[in-house]
Amino acid sequence: MLFNSLKFLLIFPMIFGIHWAIPAKYNQWRKLFLIFASYLLYIYFKPAYALVLLGVTLVTFYGGLFIEHEGTARKKHLIWLLTVLALLPLLVFKYYNFLNNSVSEGLGAIGLMFTLPGLNWAVPVGISFFTFQAVGYLLDVFHERIKAEKDIIDYLLFVSFFPQIASGPISKADELLPQIKRERSFDYNQAVSGLKYLLWGMFLKVVIADRAGIYVDTVFGSFEKFSGLGCMLASVLYSVQIYADFAGYSLMAVGIGKTLGFSLIDNFNRPYFAATVTEFWKRWHISLTRWLTQHVYLPLGGSRCSKTHNYWNILVTFLVSGIWHGANWTFIIWGVLHGICQIIEKAFGWNKKNYKGAGRLTRIILTFIIVTLAWTIFRSPSIADALAYFIRFGSTSGELVAQGSGSTLTYTIIGIIPLIVFELLCEYFPYAYNWLCKKQWLRWCAYLMVFTMMMLTGVFDGSSFIYVSF
Amino acid sequence: MKKYLFKIAFFFAFVAIIDVACGFAFRYLTAKAKYGETYNNNYIANVCVDDVIILGSSHADRHYVPSVIQDSLGLSCYNCGEPGCGIIPAYARYKMITERKKPQLVIYEATPGYDYFIADDYSKYLGRIRQYSDREPVADMYETFGDELEPLRLLSNMYRNNSNIVQNLMDIVVPTKDYRGYGPLFGKLTEEAIIYNRKTQLEKDIKSQKIDSLKLSYVEKLFADVKADGVCIVCTLSPYFMTRTNDKDDIKYLPVIELCRKYNIPFIDNRNYEGITGEMEYFQDFDHLNDNGAKKYTSSLIPTLRKYLEPNSNYLTRE
């Protein structure tokens, strides 16, 4: 069940109430209740998906216990086997059809006709997220960064914890497991902060992302009708949409976690203020960047190797990132493009430069343009469509703005203004932001304004989050 | 925890006050609107007592000129069509109008995609009439088509007026010409648009579509109610730019043709209308007539409408 649905907003107070009604000394019951709630909410998507979730959980839990006591040589073989086993559902559900089609097309090109039957299964919600979280745990045990978890109840909750299951953030075991084990008592400040996160996340989703999405879908669906500027506007709005959508989900996840006494990692740190693509990845989907750094980039050798090898490591890491996002060449090219940009930045030393003033502003705009172009590929159904879309950039004929979309654009802009103001304050005027936050009446006005704007201008069609399908 | 729950309750108390204030504000803004969509919707829901009403989606809205009907038939006319509208708002609008007065003639322009094919969900159709969800005909539609939590959402004035504020304010301050609900399109079809549209038209045509029996039952309900009200009704299909002769296109209309036959309602098929279809100067895009085309088409329809308005006319024809 998704956070932006009214059903969830009605069910959540019950989960909150029951969770805190169980005394802290009965922490085991609290955990059992949260597992029950997590699975129940997950089953709501499709009951059979819960079996995949349980399967990945059990493989990594017992796998962790098993490899902990093995000798180094055997452990190395076992970790491969267990990782592949844990990744198997992800590979089958997400990549089987893509691989099958790609191989068939490849063979077809050389005159060989061979194809396996396709799978007509929907991909389980959040499979990439919980699989990576569980595999991350397994690899941490293998590298002896943590001890294997002995309590299956704790581990079940670690993998299935409902705020983060559909779209992350991808938590590390050494962060979340200790919080699960600890007897948590209600922390007023943390809970208040959680509600603020929840409110702002909801605002980003329903006011900005879903509204911008209406316009973006119109233009991307028939871009031949639009002028180059019209297509560029849609690309920029897609950058806004995907940020508001994913950051909105992450904020809601962190917020819900906080109200239940958990601290989850903040997944975003105002990414569009990044001055380089390298910096962008330190601010965007932070939990995935961290996972890829720890489990792909560093094992490949990281930066403690020759320059060429280091560049290769970056490219492979972002290739994995692209593949992680989905089984389509558009995601792969998107990942590779980000990798190449970072290699260029590293080669010229741009990633180390401390840009200031107009120079920084120029770099921020340039990075935003690069990221937006990459998002355009990401959004396109195929590489051919992305190319056709880019070619359209040069056209002067066609509509600038989709007919009848005036109010959609107006609502989008109305929604973006508070986002820009808030992010500018946090990024460049933290003292002013903190000073404003101290004024209680102003805070309350802001909460009420955000809520009212949400009700008056939000899109309440219960649309899914973009990253849920990854 | 007590302090926390108290503050949440306090917050929602504030929200409730704002919500009530918004209710008053929107009622005021809607009544004050003199132009555009807000005025049209308010007129249809609360004022319309016209003799001829036009129901349907963009084809209805863009193709039937009330002033032409008024001048030719001597009957007042209002175009209650709306782009992307379909049977759900159309039925509710008919019922809201007949609460005041029964019209003499209903022109119902059928659009299978909105009227009885399975689409994404009903919310986009219900959204068109959400503002009037306290009215019985609209409440009935919500009961049938809305999800189980919709009554809860509709308690909020802010939700009921969601996405209306910009339009409401515009319709107070930005004057637009009153076409009595008709939405004229200006401009002509270009060669470039023809090339593009031929491609997308082919894609549209090959899409297989399934019937939504619930929506179709409301088309039937509309026909049955209009007949029971003793109102004359014609079901029409207005011109397209491209000649439509293939069987696939015909099949789309079979459900509504069946219903017309069942209720003895004339089904006027003008998709391929000589003198209009294929003429670039009469179209704004592939599917919609421009203002000139709409005037020409409405004028040419007058003799047919006059025939059906004659007392004791007994008809069942597919023209």
**Corresponding CATH superfamily of chain B:** SGNH hydrolase
- Average pLDDT for all residues of chain B: 89
How many distinct folded domains of chain B? Answer: 1
Range of helix content of chain B: 40-55%
Major sheet: arrangement of strands of chain B: 2-1-3-4-5
Gap from first CA to last CA of chain B: 72 Å
Please explain how this structure is put together:
The complex is a heterodimer of chains A (470) and B (319). Chain A has helices at residues 6-21, 27-43, 49-68, 72-109, 127-142, 152-160, 162-165, 173-181, 188-221, 228-259, 277-283, 286-300, 307-325, 329-348, 357-379, 383-392, 406-428, 430-438, 440-457. Chain A is an all-alpha fold and 470 residues long. Chain A folds into two domains: 22-185, no CATH class; 189-275 and 355-457, no CATH class. In chain A, helix 9 packs antiparallel against helix 10 (228-259) and helix 12 packs across helix 13. Chain A is globular, with a radius of gyration of 23 Å. The two termini of chain A are 16 Å apart. The mean pLDDT of chain A is 91. Chain B is an alpha/beta fold and 319 residues long. Chain B has a single domain (2-309), classed as 3-Layer(aba) Sandwich (Rossmann fold). Chain B is 53% helix and 7% strand. Chain B contains 16 helices and five strands. Chain B has a five-stranded parallel beta sheet with strand order 2-1-3-4-5, sandwiched between helices. In chain B, helix 5 (87-98) packs parallel to helix 13. Chain B starts with a helix and ends in a 10-residue tail after the last helix. The A-B interface holds A 6-7, 10, 20, 186, 188, 191-192, 195, 222, 224-225, 397, 404, 407, 410-411, 414, 444, 447-448, 451-452, 455-461 and B 1, 3-4, 7-8, 11, 14-15, 18-19, 22, 83, 121, 123-124, 149, 152-153, 156, 158-159, 161-163, 165-167, 192-193, 196, 200.
